[in-house]
Every structure is written in C-alpha cells, then in structure tokens.
Design a protein that fits this description.
The structure is a homodimer of 210-residue chains.
Chain A lengths: L3 H6 L3 E5 L4 E3 L7 E7 L1 E7 L5 E8 L3 E2 L2 H5 L6 E4 L3 E7 H10 L1 H27 L2 H15 L9 E2 L3 H8 L3 H13 L3 E4 L2 E4 L13
Antiparallel strand pairs in A: 1-8, 2-7, 3-6, 3-8, 4-5, 4-7, 9-11, 10-11
Helix pairs in contact in A: 3-4, 4-5, 5-6, 6-7
Chain A binds a DNA duplex (30 and 30 nucleotides) through helix 7.
Chain lengths: 210, 210
Amino acid sequence: MIDINLLLSFGASYKKVAANDIIFNEGGVCSYYYQLVKGRVRWINYTNDGKEYLQSIIEAGECFGELPLFDAGGYAATSIADVDSILIRLNMSAFTQLLIENPEIHFKFSKLLANRLRFKFFILKEMAFNDPAKRVNALFHYLRDGKKHICLTCSQIKLTRQQIADMTGLRVETVIRVVRNMYKNGELKIVRGKIYFNVMTPVIMSEQEY
Amino acid sequence: MIDINLLLSFGASYKKVAANDIIFNEGGVCSYYYQLVKGRVRWINYTNDGKEYLQSIIEAGECFGELPLFDAGGYAATSIADVDSILIRLNMSAFTQLLIENPEIHFKFSKLLANRLRFKFFILKEMAFNDPAKRVNALFHYLRDGKKHICLTCSQIKLTRQQIADMTGLRVETVIRVVRNMYKNGELKIVRGKIYFNVMTPVIMSEQEY
DNA sequence: ATTTAATTATGACTGCAAGCATAAACTAAA
DNA sequence: TTTAGTTTATGCTTGCAGTCATAATTAAAT
C-alpha cells in the first residue's frame, strides 16, 4: 500500500508474528498503522455467544486496522495472523504526519476506505436477501475479482468451508452442501483442497486496485 | 457536513427535489458531491429480483454519494428523496479542489468514511448471526445512539415496519411481530405510529459525530 | 507407516422465518 | 364524513437452514 521505504523514513519498524498470534483486539486503543509485508491476516469480530464473523482476509501488501487512525475509535475487529507473517507498523502520530506531508497518499487512503465501504455495501445487500448459494457465490466473486491484484495467478480460493461460513453467516454444513452442489454443477473444481473457481458469471462488484 | 458558504464559494448550487424523486442511480457515473440541506433521503440497493435493501437514511446535514468521488467507481446505491428536500451539490472536480485546498476537511472526510465503514462492520456482524429480534434491536440502537447528533430530541424512530425490514433483511411480517413483542415487553412505546425506543441496553457501537 | 487431528460429508429432525391470505386499524385526501 | 390508500396485525402452511450425530476422508505429526 504505502511504499515501505517511505514508511521506514517516518520511523516504521518491522514485526514478526507467528500463526494465530493476535495483533490487536477489537475495541482496543489504536497505536499503530499496520501493513502486511508477508503472510496472511484474519480480521474477525466475535459475537457475544462466541461465534466469529470473518470480516476480511488481509493479504500481503494490504493495510489493516486503519479505521481508528481516522476516527479515533477503537479497532473495529480483532486481527489474527493466519500464518507466520511479517508486518510493518508506524505509530499513529507519525502516520498522520506522513499523510499531511503527502496529500496524494491521503487521497490513496480515501480511495481505499471508499473501496472497502463499497464492498461492505455490496456484501450487505447480498447477505440481506440472498439464499445461501448466492451468498457463497458473491464471496467467491469478490475473492476472485476484487482481490485479483493481490492474490493469486488465477482463481484459487484457499479458505476452509468453515471460513467461508464465517464470512457468509452460514453454517459449515450448509456451505459444504452449497460447495458440493456447485462442484456437481461444474461451477468449480477442487484440487487438493483448493477451490478453483472458474465460471464466467458477470462481475457485479469489484474492489478496484488501490 | 461541509460549511455551506464554503461550498457556494466553490460554485455549489442548491437543488430542490420532490418526495420520491431519484437523485442518482446505483452504478451511475458520478458528477456531484451531494449534501442534504433539508429533508430526508433514502439510500437503496435493488436486488435482481426487485427487493430493495435500505443501506441508509440520510438526514439533513449529512452528505451522500461520496464514494465515487474518491475511488472513481459508480454510485454504490440509488438515492431517492424520502420527502420534499433541498440539497446542495458541487461538481466533482471542484470538490477535489476544495479538499486539496482544505486538508482539514479531507481529514474530516476520512473520518466520515471510517465511521460509515465501522457501522457496516457492525451491522454486518449483527446480520450474519443474530436472530430477528437482535437485528432489529441493533438497528434501533444505531438509529438512537449513532445518529443522535443529527436526528431528534429523543429516540423516536420514524420508519415503517417495511423500512425496518428493508434495513435488516427481514420480512415485514417478521418485523411487525418483533416490534409487537418488544412493545409487549415494555421495551418501546408507540405513539401515533412513531416508535419511542427507550430501553437502556448497553451501546455496542456508535457512529460518532463528524 | 501409523497415529492423531482437522476437515469434509451426509442423514434425520426441528424450529422458525418466509410466504400467503385476509382483516383491521390507521392516515390522508376529497 | 366518507372514501381510498397505506400500514399494521394475525393465523396457517411450507420450505429450508440450523442443529445434532456420526462417519468418511484428508492432512499433519510422530
């Protein structure tokens, strides 16, 4: 997202985290701007009865936990390293200073926020009325088209059915049945656990490159 | 949101719209920054099968349709005047210029975007796992606490059951039953159609003043 | 190669929201 | 005040996601 050398020149530092380490907690006071250099991060909300809602998967190159930097609230979700990861972080006041000195980067961030908001609009609409199959489909499209620039050569989806369930508000069993069904209909291939999503249904929404 | 005189100095103009007039359509190319001076605006997504999801109700003083200004996509939802309204609009390039010349307003907008994103995080989590009663409750809390600064003296909610259904992804009948039930439990009063929401359950999330 | 754990799979049952129909109670207009 | 239109109310039925139980399969660890 932000050039690493620029971050370093403002005093940013690297940090290693192991798989399943908590980076920050929902509601926690914001201290840093975070950017993922290597690895993968889960961004999760816990409901009062312990279920977890997976708001987003952060891939290398993306930033996360940026909301409090702007509105001075707590972190909107808990972030957990999905695998061993390296991240770079910059303390809050230095981040603000960086934006002031580099207005074009501030515009880049507005774009980022707008994009993320746009995706939430989309996914919320999908969640509100659609049946399970469409929800899962919407998520796949997002992962393929919305994050293409970051992710992968093609359209592999490397989430467990449980994680898909966590992102769509469905139960594992339901997701398993839906995916199974899509597989039977030839809408996707499964090779060694990975889902290869390769149907050419129209793209409804995409989180553009930023 | 932005001071009206400042907007005017950048060439903004007033516009009157009648109830149910469409201000802009989902997906449409962005031409203006909009700010509501008087009235009320519905912000809606239509699903392919004609159902509408009410993303937000815009009250006087709030801005809307700001996403495309930052990320150059289309409008994220259709906006329709709920009642006769007056709005002020500023063309896109002038808006950008305004932000460049007034970095503090740009920060204000980042805060706004962050806030709106935060609310979507919240409502999405609620929608994903909660039962109907909790969904409606979450919406009520948002309308009371999140929008207190704009709305009303107290905690009236002037939405029809249909509109509540449109915001929670439930059906009218379900909402009617839920509200009826809350009424019976003394969780709210209904005076001439308006819902007076007056229970002191802890505030989970609030869209802060901006 | 063998054990252990995690993930995927599938059937059976249940609860409850959706959907439909229909009526009552408001509201606004004439 | 009457009329027409909207909103709220309620019973009944059905479908299907959720839940539980249990098994099969795959992946990871020893």
